[in-house]
């Protein structure tokens, strides 16, 4: 099914309101505006704050600092949101300590945004500066193993076999070091929170977040408020992909101001301040592969060092993929962290896999040249039919079909084996490929469904739509389950008072919330069938539910498909205005843990490289995806295209430059932080191979949010080598690196 977004009209006509666009509840209580004052040093403490000049600005109401803020809870536990890693979370305006560059040190509140911004420029802060360390490469000797793991993190498995010994003995072997620089999220909607204070003190908060219930959890715990005093809403989110998993500091600051001043308050971060919190962590990896002359892998060794903050052990699954993708008897994986004076990193689309699979897939390409073997043939030679590390079968795995269909669509058979074999004019042409892999996850969720007397269905869950199409997917699932026209179905999300839903992340929302939606619709159908059996002269009185179909907004006997009883008539026969059911979806963990559950992809890329300038154009991409049953082909294709675009950005453009003398990210704007634009993107062809996974979810669906990016940067890197004969082992692969001898 290919369906246009049900929320599309609201978005293109401006009817959709985002976090910074909601008005105050009453004209008599107009919004106040808060502007954050960012710290000017990387590490130390605040010696003094002079806010007199700011307070003298007409319209400025208050300057809130750690010295005059409202009461906050003191224990780390209260600051831990539902996705927090181990350690001590950052506490905005809690004390005088400076932990990282750009940390918020004050909030200027005024009756206009302009007055608040002017006042923020006049706050003078003196610091006692301490020595900082922000360089991963200069501090690698201070690494440590993660000691307090975040929920959902799986540490590398124990070594299998004798990987080091087998690598030493390998007839063919390669070794490489792969570096990935810092990337920052840059969603178009900047982080914002609008806190609307009711007459009774109730706070209705419109927040840019990937979970309204996670933000409510955080606010309630930090400020000691009962959850019935706080409602968080996020009906529309203008992009996130990890940046909204955790509540960002503007939320706490907006609530502080609302509580202290007993007014409604809005706080919006600037684009520069968007670079002052989490990011994809800087990572350095070492991969060693050993093989027999026929290409059979005999050893896989993959070790990674990644940054974290001083306060938290932010961890990712970086190296584990190398123990799952290819059959091998000898595997050793390692993962360590280096604590730096930076804000804690955070999940960014395909966290861990975007880096870890990249290093492995570039190493596999290097090995193919050592073997004088086609890169695709090498991967097929070592195809894993079971999980190599623990022997589990896959719930479903159609990666072989991805290889075959993707290669055919791309024309891979015509690829010359040697590098520098294709040229057109002043450009060298190269073809590269890579494998992608991502977890297929399912979590806990609840949903409710109400069938109204007019025949309309409203399904609800506190899910989130960050632009990925959740509204539409859930409407499709509900309409299909109930046998109703899509236009009769409405899905409610983005409100913390709705039935429980997990944080939107990890490509798990369709498998999780979608299963809850189907479950509640099945429950509703059973209730409707019971009512139908009680109707006067009911044709359903003596049949079982297996003997009927829900179609065209009604109920019919399979044996008499022509006669359909409308659902409205069934409700009316009982005198009911509405029929409601609720459902709790629990994953079948006993069943699921017997399988390795994952999505897969095969990415084929063509690049053209201007050898004189080192500029790279990605002119053609074929991405073949195995992600279970596809609920909405139109939205799913868009997700994969978006992932490919981001992968091209990872490969060629995106990097936040740090001046470690200052401990500060320097290109903190969209003029200097390079992202892929229209001129960088050419032909992207997406194909979905058939797959239906009833282990992962009752829908047969997995998820497509992350898998579209995994492997893209590696395929670009491998294509660059095929074009030029030059191997670039760090991202982004900028012209200076491509030109390097």
Automatic annotation (TrEMBL):
<dbReference type="Pfam" id="PF20256">
    <property type="entry name" value="MoCoBD_2"/>
</dbReference>
<dbReference type="InterPro" id="IPR008274">
    <property type="entry name" value="AldOxase/xan_DH_MoCoBD1"/>
</dbReference>
<protein>
    <submittedName>
        <fullName>Xanthine dehydrogenase family protein molybdopterin-binding subunit</fullName>
    </submittedName>
</protein>
<dbReference type="InterPro" id="IPR037165">
    <property type="entry name" value="AldOxase/xan_DH_Mopterin-bd_sf"/>
</dbReference>
<feature type="domain" description="Aldehyde oxidase/xanthine dehydrogenase a/b hammerhead">
    <location>
        <begin position="13"/>
        <end position="131"/>
    </location>
</feature>
<dbReference type="InterPro" id="IPR016208">
    <property type="entry name" value="Ald_Oxase/xanthine_DH-like"/>
</dbReference>
<feature type="region of interest" description="Disordered">
    <location>
        <begin position="1"/>
        <end position="21"/>
    </location>
</feature>
<dbReference type="Pfam" id="PF02738">
    <property type="entry name" value="MoCoBD_1"/>
</dbReference>
<dbReference type="InterPro" id="IPR036856">
    <property type="entry name" value="Ald_Oxase/Xan_DH_a/b_sf"/>
</dbReference>
<feature type="compositionally biased region" description="Basic and acidic residues">
    <location>
        <begin position="1"/>
        <end position="12"/>
    </location>
</feature>
<dbReference type="InterPro" id="IPR046867">
    <property type="entry name" value="AldOxase/xan_DH_MoCoBD2"/>
</dbReference>
<dbReference type="InterPro" id="IPR000674">
    <property type="entry name" value="Ald_Oxase/Xan_DH_a/b"/>
</dbReference>
<dbReference type="Pfam" id="PF01315">
    <property type="entry name" value="Ald_Xan_dh_C"/>
</dbReference>
């Amino acid at each position: 099914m290919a369906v246009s977004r049900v929320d599309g009209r609201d978005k293109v006509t401006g009817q959709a309101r985002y976090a910074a666009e909601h008005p105050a509840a009453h004209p008599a209580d107009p919004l106040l505006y808060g502007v954050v004052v960012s710290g000017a040093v990387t590490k130390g403490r605040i010696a003094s704050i002079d806010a007199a000049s700011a307070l003298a600005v007409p319209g400025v109401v208050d300057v809130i600092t750690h010295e005059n803020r409202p009461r906050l809870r003191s224990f780390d536990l209260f600051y831990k949101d539902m996705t927090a890693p181990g350690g001590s979370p950052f506490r905005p305006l809690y004390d005088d300590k400076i932990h990282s560059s750009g940390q918020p040190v004050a909030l200027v509140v005024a009756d206009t945004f302009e007055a608040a911004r002017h006042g923020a420029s006049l706050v003078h802060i003196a610091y006692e500066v301490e020595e900082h360390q922000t360089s991963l490469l200069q501090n690698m000797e201070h690494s440590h193993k993660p000691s307090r793991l975040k929920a959902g993190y799986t540490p590398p498995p124990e070594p299998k076999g004798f990987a080091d010994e087998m690598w030493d003995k390998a007839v063919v072997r390669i070794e490489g070091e792969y570096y990935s620089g810092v990337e920052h999220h840059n969603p178009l909607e900047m982080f914002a929170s609008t806190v609307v204070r009711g007459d009774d003190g109730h706070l209705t908060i419109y927040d840019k977040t990937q979970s309204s219930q996670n933000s409510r959890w955080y606010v309630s715990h930090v400020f000691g408020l009962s959850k019935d005093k706080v409602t968080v809403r996020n009906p529309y989110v203008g992009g996130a992909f990890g940046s909204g998993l955790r509540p960002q500091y503007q939320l706490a600051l907006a609530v502080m101001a609302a509580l202290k001043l007993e007014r409604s308050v809005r706080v919006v971060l600037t684009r520069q301040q968007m670079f002052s919190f989490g990011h994809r962590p800087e990572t350095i990896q070492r991969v060693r592969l050993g093989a027999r002359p026929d290409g059979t892998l005999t050893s896989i060794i993959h070790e990674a060092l990644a940054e974290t903050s001083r306060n938290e052990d932010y961890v990712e699954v970086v190296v584990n993929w190398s123990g799952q993708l290819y059959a091998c008897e000898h595997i050793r994986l390692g993962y360590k962290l280096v604590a730096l004076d930076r804000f804690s990193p955070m999940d960014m689309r395909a966290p861990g896999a975007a880096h870890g699979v990249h290093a492995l897939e570039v190493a596999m390409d290097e090995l193919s040249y050592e073997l004088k073997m086609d890169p695709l043939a090498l991967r097929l030679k070592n195809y894993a039919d079971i999980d190599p590390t623990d022997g589990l079968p896959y719930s479903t795995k159609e990666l072989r079909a991805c290889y075959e269909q993707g290669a055919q669509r791309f024309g891979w058979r015509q690829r010359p084996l040697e590098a520098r074999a294709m040229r057109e004019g002043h450009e060298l042409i190269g073809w590269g490929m890579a494998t992608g892999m991502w977890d297929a996850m399912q979590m806990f969720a609840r949903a409710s469904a109400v069938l109204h007397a007019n025949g309309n269905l409203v399904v609800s869950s506190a899910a989130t739509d960050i632009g990925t199409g959740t509204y539409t997917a859930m409407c499709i699932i509900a309409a299909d389950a109930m046998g109703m026209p899509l236009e009769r179905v409405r899905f409610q999300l983005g409100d913390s008072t709705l039935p429980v839903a997990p944080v939107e992340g990890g490509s798990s929302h369709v498998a999780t919330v979608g299963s809850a939606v189907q479950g509640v619709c099945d429950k509703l159908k059973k209730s409707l069938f019971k009512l139908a059996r009680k109707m006067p002269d009911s044709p359903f009185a003596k049949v079982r539910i297996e003997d009927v179909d829900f179609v065209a907004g009604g109920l019919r006997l399979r044996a008499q498909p022509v006669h359909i009883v409308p659902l409205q008539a069934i409700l009316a026969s009982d005198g009911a205005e509405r029929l409601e059911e609720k459902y709790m979806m629990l994953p079948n963990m006993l069943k699921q843990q017997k399988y390795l559950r994952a999505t897969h992809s095969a990415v084929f890329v063509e690049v053209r490289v201007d050898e004189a300038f080192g500029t790279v154009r990605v002119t053609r991409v074929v991405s073949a995806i195995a992600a279970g049953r596809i609920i909405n082909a139109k939205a799913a294709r868009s997700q994969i295209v978006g992932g490919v675009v981001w992968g091209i950005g990872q490969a060629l453009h995106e990097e936040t430059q740090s001046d470690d003398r200052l401990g500060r990210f320097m290109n903190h704007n969209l003029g200097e932080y390079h992202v892929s634009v229209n001129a960088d993107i050419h032909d992207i062809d997406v194909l979905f191979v058939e797959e239906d996974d009833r282990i992962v979810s009752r829908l047969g669906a997995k998820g497509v949010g992350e898998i579209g990016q995994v492997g893209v940067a590696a395929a670009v890197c491998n294509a660059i080598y095929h074009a030029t004969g030059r191997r670039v082992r760090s991202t982004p692969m900028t012209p200076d690196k491509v030109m390097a001898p």
